[in-house]
Amino acid sequence: MKLNSKIVLIVIVVVLAIALGALFTTYSRQASEREELNRKLNTAQALLPGLMKQRQDLEDQLASAQYSLNASQAKFPTAVQSIEYDDDFFEIADGCNVDITRLTASPPKDKPLGAVTYSFSSYTVVITGSIEDILKFVQALKTGDGFELPWSAEVKSININVAESQATINLDIYAYKR
Asked: Distance between CA atoms of 158 and 134, rounded to whole angstroms?
């Protein structure tokens, strides 16, 4: 029986050795994984303050951009009202010493541009006067001189008849639509 007890002892030692080997291998892998996770955690913690600052800066930029958008939108009327612009046209014409002989406007239409929708109307203005005064009138339209309301005019075409001292101006007037 001594042989059997030696064999049992050897089997127990071998089983323990295998179990200890398996435990050591598992522990080594977990220790390696833990070191890798600690390294990644330290890197993430080091990056966190910079990312928080960047987030705050981006939130500040968003707030500033939103404020600028709201301020810009407030400059535009909610719809193009041709009768209000007609008054401006006649005041500009008086200031430039030209006479408006015809003024026609299309009904307002919506025109989306990115996330913003503008209301616009197309106008045809026929004026008479000296060539110099006609050019002053066109310049006043392009720069917004004399406009009572905040609006933007885009001059599409100008046809000047020098012989008759007359000009036909086609333009679009844009206003922000809420």
From this structure: 10
Residue pair 144/120 in contact by the 8 Å Cβ criterion: no
- Distance CA(123)–CA(171), nearest Å, equals 5
Q: What is the pTM of this model?
A: 0.50
Using CA atoms, how far residue 175 sits from 46, 73, 91, in Å, is 49, 9, 20
Closest by alpha carbon to 176, among 111, 107, 131, 100?
111
Residue 106 makes CB contacts below 8 A (sequence gap 6+) with 121, 122, 123
pLDDT digits (tens, 9 = 90+) for 100-129: 888 888 887 887 777 777 777 888 889 999
* Euclidean distance between CA atoms 164 and 161, whole angstroms: 6
What is residue 128's three-state secondary structure? strand
- The rounded distance, in Å, linking the Cα atoms of 17 and 19 is 5
Please count the other Cβ atoms lying within 10 Å of the Cβ belonging to residue 136. Answer: 18
Please state, in angstroms and rounded to a whole number, the distance separating the CA atoms of residues 50 and 47: 6
